[in-house]
Design a protein that fits this description.
It is a single chain. With about 450 residues, this protein is α/β, with parallel strands linked by helices. It has four domains: about 220 residues, Rossmann fold; about 70 residues, Orthogonal Bundle (Glutamyl-tRNA Synthetase, domain 2); about 40 residues; about 90 residues, Arc Repressor Mutant, subunit A (Orthogonal Bundle). The chain has 19 helices and twelve strands. It has a three-stranded parallel beta sheet with strand order 1-2-3. Helix 2 links the parallel strand 2 and strand 3. Helix 8 crosses helix 10 and helix 18 packs across helix 19. The protein is elongated and about 100 Å long.
Length: about 450
């Protein structure tokens, strides 16, 4: 089995494109086949080196490795021209100067349901001859049988008058030369498939099998776009998602494992993924569900693994103590700094929290807490801090929140932080007392 992912480098890799790449990769890995990366860069204005690098970077981040490529379509123009020449030589294509208006006039005479048929004028654009009888049939692995009556298809323009091959010709030739056995791509390409089949047939070759994936929609049922949140792989990366969680979630968009299992490792996906399980209806990308799933993956990491991921994400070292006490509250890597950044940057400035908890009564509690914490014996660790603070609460007769919230606001600058015992222990005695002093405790 030989599969390919063939993005156009006209921008960042869209989430829908990433799912297409993933499905091809899973099929190739599951069958012991080959995964080919082809860059369809024939749009010379928009296909920039920067956009190519964005795609490669996104695939690397997703950990979708390729066996061959990247193959650049633009570098194969001579091969595409040779295929056009072959079709001209065999009479399966011809040159014609018909314009859009000429095509409209021809259809006005012959019927709007008829595909344009031209004469060989010896010059002009190159058109593929389409037979008048029969149907071009796509036996799609996802959609099922799709028939296109040949009489309704225009003779297909496969090259410009200057000889430049066009998209459908280039794709068909590249798939043949690449010995691609299965073309798995988005449903928006389905209209091109009959055209590519006709080109392949005219070249006397055997086509690959085709499967067209349902498009991705947002939670509101509309085509996925930036208004739904993240729309590209880079945006997911920058939002702090883990590659393994993204692979897991994308695999479940439009495909089912045959049971209710939601969390599937990449090895399990490779073993279980089957194109027959892909659904026909559009799938809905819901970032809220992705956050939940990513949180599950985050909590499954060891402290060492979480620390390494956080340090890569933030480009900082020394995060392990704070990572250890924050793990159970994180859904993404990006959640860490808003939660625990005060440990490194000092307290934030939540005015509402200060007014609520650092009134005279709160500062009086802090003054008493300062005395208690200053007397905690070494080692000044979580267990020692918890014993001291728990005893203080019991003896004061106050509710725990009346004690812990003023302390939390003094240390973090706001009313949310990792566990208060763990926070005090990580800050250490000197820094904890200093922050209490700074608010007048």
């Amino acid at each position: 089995m030989r599969l390919r992912f063939a993005p156009s480098p006209t921008g960042a890799l869209h989430i829908g494109g990433a799912r297409t790449a993933l499905f091809n990769w899973l099929l190739a890995r599951g069958a012991g086949g080959r995964f080919v990366l082809r860059i369809e860069d024939t749009d010379r204005l928009r296909s920039t080196p920067e956009n190519v690098e964005q795609i490669l970077e996104a695939l690397r981040w997703l950990e979708l490795d390729w066996d061959e490529g990247p193959i650049f379509q633009s570098a194969r123009e001579e091969r595409h021209r040779a295929a056009v020449d072959e079709l001209l030589a065999t009479g399966r294509a011809y040159r014609n100067e018909a314009t859009g208006d000429d095509v409209k006039a021809w259809k006005a005479e012959h019927g709007d349901d008829r595909g344009f048929r031209g004469d060989d004028q010896g010059h002009g654009a190159v058109r593929l001859r389409i037979p008048d009888d029969g149907d071009t049939v796509v036996n799609d692995l996802v959609v099922g049988e799709v028939r296109s009556p040949n009489r309704s298809l225009d003779d297909l323009v496969i090259a410009r008058a200057d000889g430049t091959p066009l998209y459908n010709l280039a794709v068909a030739v590249d798939d043949l030369d690449g010995r691609i056995t299965h073309v798995i791509r988005g449903n928006d390409h389905l209209t091109n498939t009959a055209k590519q089949l006709l080109i392949i047939e005219a070249l006397g070759q055997t086509p690959p099998r085709y499967g067209h994936l349902p498009l991705l929609h947002g939670p509101d049922g509309k085509k996925l776009s930036k208004r739904h949140g993240a729309a590209s792989v880079q945006e997911l990366r920058d939002a702090g998602y883990l590659p393994a969680a993204v692979r897991n979630y994308l695999a479940l968009l439009g495909w089912g494992a045959g049971d209710d299992e939601t969390i599937l490792s990449t090895d399990e996906l490779i073993e279980r993924f089957d194109i027959a399980g892909v659904q026909r209806n559009p799938a809905r990308f819901d970032e809220t569900k992705l956050r939940w799933l990513n949180g599950r993956y985050m909590r499954a990491l060891s402290t060492e693994e979480l620390t390494a991921a956080l340090e890569r994400f933030y480009g900082r070292e020394g995060l392990e103590p704070a990572a250890a006490i924050s793990a159970d509250k994180l859904q993404t890597l990006a959640d860490f700094w808003p939660l625990a950044g005060f440990i490194f940057d000092g307290p934030s400035d939540d005015d509402a929290a200060r007014k609520r908890w650092l009134d005279p009564a709160g500062r009086d509690i802090l003054a008493r807490l300062r005395d208690t914490l200053s007397e905690v014996p070494e080692p000044f660790d979580v267990q020692a801090v918890e014993r001291a603070l728990t005893t203080f609460v019991e003896r004061s007769g106050l509710k725990p929140s009346a004690v812990y919230q003023p302390l939390r606001v003094a240390l973090a600058g706001r009313a949310v932080s990792p566990g208060i015992f763990e926070t005090v222990a990580v800050l250490g005695r000197a820094e904890t007392l200093s922050r209490i002093d700074a608010v007048g405790g």
